[in-house]
Design a protein that fits this description.
107 residues
Length: 107
């Protein structure tokens, strides 16, 4: 039920591009796509492959979920980098202000 609720929320939050073009561009080379297409055309014989056919409908959900998780991680890394840069700038500002204060006391 939780996954279905998340899938429904994802559908509501889809961008216009995702609604029009729901497929992500493939990063596979042409020959890799051809090999994958050939393998997918064969009927599955392994028990796990047969069981996975029941969950094909969730593939789109998992793609979006993984995309969101990757974006979340990227944002966390960017936030950490910005926090570190902010800390460095604060240190430089304190050094500058300390230098200005010393120069004002000198005359």
């Amino acid at each position: 039920q939780r996954i279905l609720r998340l899938a429904e929320m994802c559908r509501r939050l889809e961008t216009e591009e995702e609604k029009v073009l729901p497929f992500y561009p493939s990063s596979l080379a042409e020959w890799e796509q051809e090999n994958a297409r050939r393998v997918l055309e064969q009927p599955p014989i392994e028990p796990l492959a047969l069981a996975l056919q029941d969950y094909v409908g969730l593939e789109r959900f998992w793609k979006r979920f993984n995309k969101a998780k990757l974006e979340e991680k990227a944002l966390e890394q960017a936030r950490a980098a910005l926090a570190e840069r902010n800390q460095n700038l604060r240190g430089l500002l304190q050094q500058y202000l300390a230098g200005v204060a010393i120069n004002q006391k000198a005359p």
